[in-house]
Design brief:
Helix content is 27%, strand content 25%. The chain is an alpha+beta fold. The protein folds into two domains: 2-105 and 259-458, Zn peptidases (Aminopeptidase), CATH 3.40.630; 107-242, Aminopeptidase i, Domain 2, CATH 2.30.250. It has a nine-stranded mixed beta sheet with strand order 1-2-3-14-4-15-21-17-19, with helices on both faces. A seven-stranded antiparallel beta sheet has the order 8-7-11-5-6-10-9. The protein has a five-stranded mixed beta sheet with strand order 12-13-23-22-16. The longest helix is centred in the N-terminal third of the chain and has 20 residues, at 17-36. The structure holds manganese (II) ion (2 copies). One manganese (II) ion binds at residues 102, 262-263, 295, 337-338.
């Protein structure tokens, strides 16, 4: 009677040589994307570059309801969020297959007036973004990415610390010799947000009598390189992220260690899946890829997934606001976000039967939230059944996932914001080890299977 027992397989046992090679090649493209897209702006810019190379054009102004089947269009939201669509055989008003991932990741943002000097050193004050464990962000090389928006309307891009010959930045920590009091504190108390100050320089300008000569020296360098002055920080978004590229991990190179798997792994999967749709044969249903910002801080704002811009974008595809609302009711959404992979170093937080495992494929989460599933949209049994059928028919290896043991903690995704619009929605994505750490680990096979899962949705009626 063993056929009555459910068992999901390790992808290395389940897949043939060809699929293993496909996954390896997929991972090479994904690593390039990771390196080119470390912030939400860079991710959107890189996605547009890749999309335009595959025939996508900006969504024409005005009523887009008349777009022909097979049309490939995109809309950037302030350069920080992006919608891409491939129009299907049936009109968009009859329903859309959505996949939505987020392009923001936890990081240290520079404050609006960040630069100061103390102890003959210049520092940047930071304000962390998203859920971080602060102790993980000290004594590692950081790069600065972002923009300074000048009052004259010009945007100055900043990207320093990634190339071998460029300097990096860092936050200091106390030497263990003097850490007796520090080590008595809890992890959350030992490092405070106001201690996450980034060292910017130690070389003064001018003589000893000059005031602020360490801070001024940094400003001089910034002015020479970027043409910006201190006031320009007021309207800048400068993000400190771990410096360095995505790397293979493990002797067998089965994993990728990188900054921002949450949620670039699903961003790239959803993006590649929509780019790969056959240009000569439109999908039956319209496919839309949503790359959204601000998920890590609650999906608020113009570029977050709660933004009504999704309504107006859909209205332009569907031919009106009323049609868009009806379209949502006939739509399906994979909320593509990472889940927690079981980590044998921390077995106590997970319940093994219901935890995702590395190399067991795309993780499906029926619900997220915390406590009694609070704050989750909790997908229907029928929705899970549809995915079972879709994935079985399309060779997608997948597994059920939950964030952790009951009452252990919790978290959320964009799923509820999509579901609240009346769209049938479920969470699905890549299982990750050390989620939200500066360097996160994910399996190449799981990344590839997440791509295959989203491609199956785009290519079929569900
Ligand atoms: Mn996420
Ligand atoms: Mn996250």
């Amino acid at each position: 009677m063993s056929e009555l027992i459910y068992k999901n397989k390790n992808a290395f046992d389940a897949l043939g040589e060809e699929e293993l090679e496909n996954a390896r090649l997929y991972a090479e493209g994904y690593k390039k994307f990771l390196d080119a897209a470390k912030t939400e702006r860079e991710a959107v810019r890189e996605a547009i570059t890749l999309a335009e190379a595959r025939g996508f054009v900006p969504l024409p102004e005005g009523d887009g309801g008349a777009l022909a089947p097979g049309s490939r269009v995109y809309k950037s939201v302030g350069g920080k969020a992006l919608f891409l669509a491939v129009i299907g055989e049936t009109p968009p008003r009859d329903g859309i297959n959505f996949a939505g991932a987020h392009v923001d990741s936890p990081r240290l943002d520079l404050k609006q007036l960040p630069l100061y000097e103390d102890g003959e050193m210049a520092f940047f004050k930071t304000h962390y973004y998203g859920g971080i464990k602060k102790y993980q962000w000290v004594t590692l090389p950081l790069a600065l990415h972002g923009v300074a928006a000048k009052a004259d309307g010009t945007l100055v891009p900043v990207n320093i610390g990634e190339k071998e010959d460029e300097p990096v930045f860092f936050v200091s920590d106390l030497l263990p010799h003097l850490g007796r009091e520090q080590s008595k504190k809890t992890l959350s108390e030992a490092f405070t947000g106001e201690q996450l100050n980034i060292l910017a320089g130690t070389k003064p300008t001018g003589g000893e009598k000059n005031e602020n000569r360490f801070k001024t020296a940094v400003l001089k360098l910034l002015h020479a390189k970027y043409g910006i002055a201190e006031e320009d920080f007021l309207s800048a978004e400068l993000e400190a992220v771990p410096a360095g590229r995505a790397r293979d991990a493990g002797f067998d190179s089965s994993l990728i260690l990188a900054y921002g798997h949450d949620d670039r792994s699903c961003t790239y999967a959803a993006l590649k899946a929509i780019l790969d749709l056959d240009g000569s044969a439109p999908p039956k249903k319209t496919a839309v890829c949503i790359l959204t910002d601000k998920e890590e801080i609650g999906s608020e704002g113009v570029t977050g997934s709660q933004s009504r811009i999704l309504e107006s974008f859909t209205a332009r595809l569907a031919g009106g606001a009323e049609q868009a609302a009806r379209c949502f009711e006939s739509s399906f959404c994979l909320s593509a976000d990472v889940c927690n992979a079981f980590d044998p170093n921390f077995p106590d937080v997970s319940e093994k039967n219901n935890s995702a495992q590395l190399n067991h494929g795309m993780g499906i989460m029926k619900f997220t939230g915390s406590g009694g599933k609070s704050g989750s949209s909790d997908a229907s049994a029928e929705t899970v059944a549809k995915l079972r059928r879709l994935f079985a028919e399309n060779g997608v290896l997948w597994q059920m996932a939950e964030l952790g043991k009951v009452d252990q903690g919790g978290g959320g995704t964009i799923a509820k914001y999509m579901a609240n619009r009346g769209i049938e929605t479920i969470d699905a994505g890549v299982p990750v080890i050390s989620m939200h750490a500066p360097w996160e680990a994910a399996s190449k096979l799981d990344c590839y299977m997440t791509y295959k899962g989203i491609a199956a949705l785009y290519g079929n009626e569900i």
